[in-house]
Amino acid sequence: MIDLGDRRENDAFTFGFTTYGQTGSPADATGLTVCCYKGTSETETTTGLTLTRHDDDDGSGGAQRLGLYRLRVSLSDPFYAINSDYYIVATAGTVDNVNLDGVCIATFSIANRLMLPFPGIEGAVKTDSTPSTTVVTCTGVSGGKTADFYENQALLWTSGVLKGLTFFITGSGTQATDSLSLNLQTMTAVPEDDSGSEDTFIILGTKGT
């Protein structure tokens, strides 16, 4: 089984795997199909999966390799969500008279393997503060500092749509303690500020606890 690591939301990637005969040598499969499962759910999907026999299909003169396949995985469908783990499984096929149904080929996750703690300052988006892709008002980070105290620090998102992504702080305000405005390098999405689901982050490093 192959571990494909922690992927980003809406990622697309291709990986290869090999099927083997009973002697242990690579051998082509007959009728091979695959699906993907999410977490502990028994619901399967084939959406976003494109299985191809590795062959000289582009006319470049490359050698055909017995048992070698490539699988294209596109995570754009809503089935593929952040904070989730996935595994790709054979649903049919045989190799050298051995049934492949149920064989787990690979696993991966989507923004779900962030390990804590990190050295730094933990904070969260302030409830109903209307953040943007460049300005976030937060709680949990000490205010009362001089202007731009946190400038050039790196901010790592630990939950929400931006989980696992890091952006540089380009400036910070001087608001009262526990309510601070941060200017950020333009982010790829707007963080969440709804009550009970505010996105969280860590300012990496140890500056200004």
Looking at the structure, the CATH topology of the largest domain is Immunoglobulin-like
**Which structural class should the secondary elements be placed in?**
mainly beta
User: How many helical stretches?
Assistant: 0
What number is the mean pLDDT? 87
Q: Can you give a write-up of this model?
A:
The chain has 209 residues and is mostly beta strands. It contains no helices and 15 strands. The protein starts with a strand and ends in a 5-residue tail after the last strand. The model has no long low-confidence stretch (mean pLDDT 87).
Brief overview:
The protein is 0% helix and 43% strand. The strands form 3 sheets. Strands 1, 3, 4, 7, 8 and 9 form a 6-stranded mixed beta sheet that branches.
Features:
209 residues, mainly beta, Immunoglobulin-like, Elongation Factor Tu (Ef-tu), domain 3, 2 domains, six-stranded mixed β-sheet, 15 strands
